[in-house]
Every structure is written in C-alpha cells, then in structure tokens.
Amino acid sequence: MTQKNRLSGGMINRDRPMSFTFDGKMYQGFEGDTLASALLANDVRLMGRSFKYHRPRGPLTAGSEEPNAIVELRGGARQEPNTRATTAELFDGLVAKSQNRWPSLAFDAMAINDKLSSFFAAGFYYKTFMWPAAFWEKVYEPIIRKAAGLGSLSLQDDPDSYDKGFLHCDILVIGAGPAGLMAALTAGRSGAEVILADEDFAMGGRLNAETFSVGDASGRDWAAQTVAELASLPNVRLMSRTTVLGAFDHGTYGALERVSDHMFAPDAGKPRQILWRIYSKRAILAAGATERPIAFEQNDRPGVMLASALRSYANRWAVTPSQRVAVFTNNDDGHRTAQDLHALGVKVSAVVDTRADAPSSTDYEVLKGAVITDTMGRLGLTFAKVRQADGMERTLECGALGVSGGWNPNVHLASHQRGRPVWDADISAFVPSEALPQGMSATGAARGVLSTHGTLESGVSVAKGALKELGIKANATKTPEAEDAPINITPFWHVEGAKRAWLDQQNDVTAKDVKLAHQENFKSVEHLKRYTTLGMATDQGKTSNMGGLAIMAELAGKSIPEVGTTIFRPPYTPTAIGAFAGRSRDEDFRPVRKTPSHTWAEEQGAVFVEVGMWLRAQWFPKPGETHWRQSVDREVLQTRNSVGICDVTTLGKIDVQGADAATFLNKIYCNPFAKVPVGKVRYGLMLREDGIAMDDGTAARFAEDHFVVTTTTANAVSVYRHMEFVRQCLFPDLDVQLISTTEAWAQYSVAGPNARKLLEKVIDPEHDISNEAFPYMACGEISIGGVRGRLFRISFSGELAYEIAVPTRYGDALIRRMVAAGEEFDAVVYGTEALGVMRIEKGHAAGNELNGTTTALNLGMARMVNKKKDSIGSTLSEREGLNTDDALKMVGLKPVDSEKPVPAGAHLMTKGDPADAAHDQGYVTSACYSPNLGHHIALAYLKRGDERVGEVIRLVSPLTGIDHNVEVVSAHFIDPDGERLRV
Amino acid sequence: MSDANATELPAMEPITPLGARAPRVDKHGQVTLTEATDTAIASFASRLGNEAKATKALAKFTGLELPAAGRMTEGKGLCVFWTSPDQWMVTASHDSHEDLAAQMKAAAGDTASVTEQNDAWCRYDLAGSGLDAVFERLCPINMRGREAGDATRTSIDHLGCFVLMSGDEAISVFGPRSSAGSLHHALLTAIRSAH
Question: Could you read off the pLDDT of A551-571 as tens digits, one per residue?
Fold first, then answer.
C-alpha cells in the first residue's frame, strides 16, 4: 500500500502527485512534501546509517537541524552527498540514495563497528593510531577514511552554475515565522525597504506546523494572508528557499538562495543557487528555536524524533511515522504533539512526562514523573520501556516517539561575531546577549519568546525599534490575538544509568563519551568538542550541543552558563563550495585581457601564454617546426638579422601630467628626470622606500608638463598604485595628475637593422624618422594612414628599435599593415619567448632580476641612484647590509662545455668548495639558448660578480642533477657597446 | 594627413573591443545588450590650485552643469561623469569628437590635465525592463535605490567598471577594453540568469 501513513489535511497538493526513488525503489509523494515527509508517508523510517557505528537512523527533526536523515541526492555529475532529507523539496523524478552503508541500508556490514563500540569510544583514534608514525599517512588514514565518512562525491565537474549577487535594504528580517512576518509587516507597511528571507520553501515557520489560530484565522492561513500582503508591497522583497548563513561586518549578511534545487535540473542559463551579499541598515533575527532531545538508552532508533517534528509531519505534511505514537517530555509543549496526533486519529500510547506535576489528559494516558529507559526494534522503533514514578517498569507499544526537552533559541547569527549567548533560566536555554552584531536585534523565539502571541508582539516591537533608529515613522500595526501559554519546563537532560544514550546522532557521540572526555581532563567546551567530535558534523550540533554542555556541567559541578558554549561560525547550514566560487571557476576564474593583435595572432596559430591576466603570443609556429625552440630561434635570428615585430601593449602606460610632473618623476625614479628634454625618453629605475629595486621602465616627455611612463607588464598595477600613494600621501603639494592609459594604446616594438625601413613604409611620409631627425631615445607624435600615433625610439632587444603606438581600435590594422610592409625585409612577428631571449642576450633585467630582494647595486646600476637629489628609496639603499663587499652583482654565464645548459634556479659555487648553503656564491635568474651565440647563456647574481669575469665557477642544481662548470662573463652578450641602438 | 601608402598596404580600419568590424548586439527576453563603439572619452583632472578655473572651463566647454560625486549629466551630445574630487570623464560621439581630448585641453589650458581615454574602455549599453535583477547579479550597487543620473565606480567580475544609469531602462557599463570579451560574457550571463 502506498502512503499508508498519510493523514488528512496538511499543506500538500494532492492534485500534484510526484514519483521519486529511494535506494532504487519507486515511491509516490505530493507537491509540498519533503523527501523525509514523503518517505515517512510511505512507512519508510530508516533513512541512513550513522557516521561511526553505522547504526540505523531515521529523521530526528523536520528541518535544517537534521543530524540523521542524510542522503545522496540526484545522480551522475549532479550527485550531491550529505543532503538533509528533511529539507529536500520533493520533485517529480527525484532520485535519492542512502549513504554510509554496504551492501544495503537494511543490512550494513560495517554495522559490526556497533558491536565493537567499546573499542571506538571518544579519543579512540588518537590513542590507537599512534605507532608507528609512518603508518599514519599510508595505512591508518586510508582505512579510517574508507570506514568513516558519509556520502560520496561524483568526482565529476559540477554541471551547474552559481551566481553571486548583492542586495540592499533598510531592514533584513531573518526568518518568516510569526515574529519575522510580523516584523516584516510592520516595517513594510511603514515604507521601509525590507528583505524577508526564510530557508523554507513555505513561509510561516512554526505556524505551518501548529494548529494554533492567529486572530480569526488558523495560524497557517494568517501566515499565507500576511505573505500575500507583503508580496503586494513594492518595498518588500520576499526570499523563500533562502538561508541567511552568516552575519558579517557592518550589517552585511550572506544568504544562499536555492533557485533550482526543487527542480529536476536548472532551467537553461539559470543558476542552481545564488549567494547573496545583503547590505542591511538593520537586521531582525527571527530565526526561531530548535527543540532539543532528551538522552536515554537507545534513543536513536528510527521512529524516535523530536516531539515538534512529529507535530510538523502530522500538521504540515499530513504524515505520521507510525499509527501508534508516544511522547517523552519535560515541558508542556510536548503535550501538544499528543493532542494534535490524537486529533488526527493517531493512537497515542502514552505521554511520559518527567515532571510529577505534569498536566493530565482525558484522551490518552499521561505517565507523570516517568522516564523512558530503553527502546526496542531492529531497524525501527517498536516498543519503549518506561520507568514510572513508582519505580515500576512497563513497555509501551509505539512506532514513533516524540521527545521534547525544551526549546533552544537559534542564537547562531547573533553569535557570529563572537557574541556569547546568555542563559535564560525561565526557559532553561541560551538566548542572545546584548552584544549583538552591529544593527541586529533578535525577536520571537530566537530571543526566547516562545508563545505565539509573544512572538507576534515581539516582532512588532522590534520592527518599531528598528524603524525609529532609521528615522522612519512606524505605521500602527495591531498584534493579532493568539495563544499565550506560559512556558512550563523542568530541565531534564538525560536519563541516569543509560549506557548508550546518543547526544550527537550524526557523529555518534554518547553521554558516556562526554563523561570520558571529562575524565581525561578535556573539560573546556572547545576541548570537549574536539575530543568527542560533539557538534562537529554537518548539522554542527544544533540538536546535540546543549545536551553535551548539560552533562559536562553536571560532571564539573558547574552551571550550564558557567560551562558556556563553543564559538558559533558561519555558515548556518552546509553550503556548496560552488556557491562560494560563484561564476569564478574554470575559464571564468578571472577575466582575460587580450592584446590588440590577439585576433591576428590567433589567425597565425600563435601559442599563447598567460602573463598576469593577459594572453600574450609566446611564439608563432611555422609549418615544419616541431619544437618550440625552432620557432623561437627563428624569430630571434630574423629579428637580429632584419626586423621583428612584437606586441608590447601589455607594458603599463601611465599618463603623468601637471606643472610638477618632472619634479614628481624625480622623486619616483632614483635617477635624474628633471631635465629630460621634451621629445626624449629616459630609462628609469624605481626603488621601494626600503631601497630595494621595484620596477624599471621609461618615461617619455611629450611636453614640459606631460610624460608617459612605462612599466613592466607584471608591475603595471602596483607601480600605478605606488605612484598614486606617493602623489596623494607623500607629496600632496605637488601639482601632478596620473591616469592609466595601458589599454588606450596598441603598442608594438619594431626591432632590427631594418626597423626604420619598415616603419618608413608604414608611417605617413610627412614624419621624418631618420637617425638625424629621430635619434636614439627620441619620442614624438606621428600618423599612420591618417591615424594619430606615437613613436618612441627605445630598445629592449639591443637592436635599432622603435615602439609605435596607435589608438587600440587600430592595433589590429597596424600589425596587418606592418606585416605587409615587412614582407620585402623578411620581417617576423615574435612572441614573448624570443623577447626574453633577446633581452637576456642584451643583459637587460626583468622580473626575474627585479625579484623583490635586489638593489640597484646588485643590478649593476648603483651609479644610477643619484645622490644630488632625494628620491624614494635612495637613503635606505645606503644601508650597510645592502652594501657589503661581497654583495651579489649581476653577471652573465656561459657553459664551459658549450653543449651544457645553464638553468635558472641553479646555484653557483666556487670551484673546490663544497656544494652547500654555507658556500653559496649566488644563483641563476634567467636562462635561455642563444641562437646568435650557439649555446646556452644565463644571467645570474654572483657575490663580487663584477670582479670575477673570466672565472670558471661551479653550477649546481641538486634538484635537477646539474653539476658542471660555467664561465663568468659580461651580462651584455650582444653588442656590449650599444652601437646597434644608435645607427 | 594622407595615407600615401594606402595603395599597397592594408587600410587602417578600426575593430570593435570584441574584435569585429561591427558592434555586437545581443537580445534576451526584454533586455538588449549593445556593444557601443561610437564613444570618445577623455579624462579631466583639475590642476592643483586651479580647481575653480578648471571646473569653470569644463562647464563652459560642455555647456553642462558638472556632476557631483557619484553622478553624471548628459546633454548636447556630451556626457560628464564624476570620477574623483575635481576630476571627471567626458564622453561624446567618436565619429564627431575623435579629438575630444585635444578640444578639452584647448579649452582648459594649463588649468587641467586632460588625457585621451577613447580606447582605454569598452562600453556596453543595456536597454529594457528588469535591469535591476541583472545588475544585482553583477555588482554591489543598490539597484532599488538608484536614480537616473547615478554614475558609480564598481567591480564586475573582478573588472573595475563605471556603471551609468541613464534611466530606468537604460544603463551603460564602461569596462577595461582589453577585457571586453570577459565583461561581455559576464553581462550576458547575468541577463540570461536574471530573465
């Protein structure tokens, strides 16, 4: 028979039946069901196995606090482990599997752990897997990992996408139960911008699970009416299926909206979930409360659940786990479960109340001053044993047992910024302290106000308070009438004498484990948590922490507030990592920057390399070239023999203007800039304040008050930031303005003996670029095919070279034009590898040499640090430690055996010395094969390197097995006198 | 200036930020996303001690009231938006104002620093209803609190952008030109996600 446990009523849509499978078996449920309610309707109580002992478990709760009914949802790449059946919204075609069992849920071979439980008490791992130490990683950990754990990952890429979003509001209301609805209504009617978020798919909170009336309507109908009114208000945003998962600084909250989890698959283009960042001026925490269980012997059998959950299943989902139920309580609220289920025609075996003065009932038996001492039933509850007040024992037949130990306000978000909750003796529970996150106030059950009337009233008053603080006049909102029963509770945490009374059902922590922790001196709550794993599972101890604290308090002879709680941290409920990543994954992990010649380079089949976010052509393979070195060698040789073109747009360009522009650059660069003539470029070295070299580049002077500074690609942003800092904070009295123009201009290097000839064909003829008119280090404005451009006669390769720039939109046209113009010269376009080879051949420093530890002295540029002026880093570059006799100096290296490589990262040792750190003489920074010289070359830092030219030295790299001799040479392998630059 | 080499060499034809000859237009539901290429841009920064003169010169040049922080003004084919104290960006049609920076510099003289920004940026225009839902997925701007004329510097998918609110159903985004493809992808993804 299908859905044999379905009752009448409920908030399910019987006109929309839905099919789903659990462990391969097909079942039916209805729209509005959760997976747990639909399974219970089908008389399935067993939904999972516990973490450690593989004990059979069913749902303990009907909400997000669920420790037991943890399943794998969906299949294939969408398989998601450790999902709570109690919150999984049913949809047609849902596939769910139980986890942590083999071969089946009903017969789990690993349940042998349960028989061996005396060996697996808290601290078992720490004591057992101690020796031998080497076994931990290879033997013990894999075994433990295999035996423990819950669900499994698909190990496939997540096919779904996740959005991140940003919302703003005057008042964020967290939770749409009676208090939250009333707060949102009060604020919404007053015109405030309100966001009302609730983790459930149906707003209303406990009103949907209770039979109380609110005003003239049932609580459920009142909630629906209120939601409808809120939905009609343009200033209110209703967000169901949205969990506010963390309270962050300055009224900022994280919230996860499950957009598509209730569907078979997300609609095309739609995300599975959205992680919202909500900026609120005020926040109202109306997160409700969580019922807590009482620990007793064998209290984890499927069918034993919270009394409120039993009530929720019956009232909201029209389901009872069994046709015969019992209740175990220490407070009046537990009796409501018996009343509601009795009214629905479910047989109530008895209400077992720990209090001698418990209320009576004419509908069912109430056993006052009694406790449950044991339960029976292999895969689900069949009987419960009761010890009556008079000491007599009896057995109750029941397939479900509702347990109520009182209610814990959900103080989590109130405590995310280290606020510690305080003890409220009236309800025997922790409530939020006064030290709430900025702008937050708590209301309703989350604040410890547990009657329906109290929560409604509390919602109104807290909203009025927030409105007043925001200067918004509150419209009068009347609190509807509702039950206002006092809270009658006598704290009762666990039944004495129990051997296996479960506190944390997901992590299999018993009352006995807490005692053991105390015995072994793990008495602080934080130690208790780590030693026993109490509260460390996916539910973070929402139903278990209080029980553990209470037992620890008893053992320590302290009160519960003296023991205190562990720290509450976000997220409130488990959150997919994908949601935190958002769209920033795979190829969208970060933006891509493309050079102006990108399309052209793609057409040539260029091989690209990521340089920061830029994609740069690394080399351009030609037909027949099978190894990258062939391409790179060709590009280098063709450039040095004739002419080569390279896209250098990625170099940072900073426009520097103002009356004090030259004075400013004189501060920024260590070498002089005050007297650079208009129409000239100068090479400059920037130091950090501490005297270490920061970046190098050029500054071209276009006018008395206008420079264009170039930086290295890697440091474009950091140099600009540094210059802004200097401008705004160090020299605010200088008239200078900065702006980046890196993206505005497409810039190409044209280098080689035929560079001028090529450019003369490209540049409009009215511009004279002869050596006389446009000498080395000149700059000026030109035009190309009528398009405005800039020309700089600077060289990174050591050849006769120019950099030519046009507005970026013409960059594609310019490279096509230059390639066409260069055909007669056998011009080549080269990539970053050839660029690197040529700068090493020329002995130019780059990022490898400007590595954040080196000074101008190390670079061989000590004389550039001009002492006739003050510049940033100049003074601190004089520090003694940076100016020792054996300071590292940049040198060139070539192998003694010309076949041998000179790899970067290798270290240098004086011949005859041992190869160890104490005798280290320096290291190789940049290395390449020089096609011009026919052997490998390198740049290196070597102690006293400038005095050691000609010395044969030992090159050692134990990591790569390198140990051979190299000769120290000048770093300028090609054209050391710079004649080629000036022709 | 003439293109004397035009007969033998490829002409200097511009391409769009997305790398094509013609601007791209995407439509999804009620929203149209257009790559707006006819945009000249120049940055304007008042020089130290010349703020009043510079501001006056720019107001005169544009014929517009200069906007306060976080705002823009539009009119006479020009748009001015605030970027920093005493600093603005000015945009105009590229077809008619390719030399916008030079014109502004001539108007301001030594009272301001003007820098051509024509091709430093790509610009996308979004038009249609439901733009709030799109931008809520893109950047931290308070979309419900926005007003026409807001101009906000923000971050979209790690890219520093300006978002200009021309009206309820018209928003322009200026982003770094080299990342035009990434920004376009982000905008289109958000449109498809929201609608």
Answer: 999 999 999 999 999 999 999
User: How far, in Å, CA of A68 to CA of A84, rounded?
Assistant: 8
B85 interfacial to chain A (CB closer than 8 Å): no
**Pick from A271, A761, A783: which is nearest to B1 by CB?**
A783
Neighboring chain B residues of A583 at a CB cutoff of 8 Å: 157, 186, 189
Residue A842 three-state SS: helix
CB of B132 within 8 Å of any CB in chain A?
Answer: no
Distance, in angstroms, between A649 CA and closest chain B CA? 10
- The predicted pLDDT at position A678 comes to 98
B140-179 burial by CB neighbour count: b if 16+ within 10 A, else e?
A: bbbbeebeebbbbbbebbebebbbbbbeeeebbbbbbbbb
Q: What letter represents residue A744's amino acid? A: A
- Using alpha carbons only, how large is chain B's radius of gyration in Å? 18
d(CA A777, CA A789): 17
Binary contact (A594, B178; C-beta < 8 A) = yes
Rg (CA), chain A: 38
| Six-digit token string for A575 | 């959150």
Kindly list the residues from chain A whose CB atom is less than 8 angstroms away from the CB atom of residue B186.
583
Which fold would CATH assign to domain B25-37+120-194?
Gyrase A; domain 2 (3.30.1360)
Half-sphere exposure of A937 (CA within 13 A, CB side): 23
> Can you give the pLDDT at residue A83?
94
Burial of A774 (0-12, 13-18, 19+ CB in 10 A): buried
Distance from the B76 Cα atom to the nearest Cα atom in chain A, whole angstroms: 25
Per DSSP, the residues of A213-228 read: EETTEEHHHHHHHHHH
- The structure tokens listed for A578 are 């994908």
Residue of chain A nearest B88, judged by CA positions: A739
* Out of A705, A786, A812, closest to residue B15 by CB: A812
Record: contact B179-A783, CB cut-off 8 A = no
For B60, phi and psi rounded to 5 degrees?
-70, -45
Does 3.30.460.80 match the CATH number of domain B40-116?
no
Q: Do the Cβ atoms of B10 and A813 come within 8 Å?
A: yes
Residues of A whose CB is below 8 A from B114: 657
Instruction: Please identify every stretch of chain A with a pLDDT value under 50, giving residue numbers as ranges.
Output: 1
Q: Which two tokens stand for residue A476?
A: 């009068």
Question: Where in A363-506 does DSSP place strands (E)?
Answer: 366-368, 371-376, 383-387, 393-397, 400-404, 407-409, 422-424, 429-431, 440-442, 502-504
Q: Are A97 and A23 in contact (CB under 8 A)?
A: yes
| CA dihedral angle for residue A652, residue A657, residue A660, residue A666, rounded to 10 degrees | 20
Residue B1 confidence (pLDDT): 44
For residue A271, what is the nearest residue in chain B, using CA coordinates? B193
**Given an 8 Å threshold on Cβ–Cβ distance, is A592 in contact with B16?**
no
Q: Which long-range contacts (CB under 8 A, 24 or more apart) does B64-67 make?
A: B67/B149, B67/B151
Separation in Å, CA of A214 to nearest CA in chain B: 33
Q: Which of A793, A757, A790, A797 is nearest to A778 (CA)?
A: A793
Question: Which among A475, A839, A785 has a CA at the least distance from the CA of A639?
Answer: A839
Q: How far is CA A243 from the centre of its chain?
A: 17
In a 13 Å sphere around the CA of A124, the CA atoms on its Cβ side amount to: 16
Interface test with A, best of B2, B3, B12 (most A CBs within 10 A): B12
Q: Which sequence spans correspond to the domains of chain B?
A: 25-37+120-194, 40-116
In the block, which residue shows the tokens 């089949």? A605
Q: What is the pLDDT of residues A150-167, one digit of tens each?
A: 788 889 999 999 999 999
| A chain contacts of residue B145, beta-carbon cutoff 8 Å | 168, 193
Contact of B51 with chain A, judged by CB distance below 8 Å, is answered with: no
Residue in B51, B178, B179 to test binding to A, most A beta-carbons within 10 Å: B178
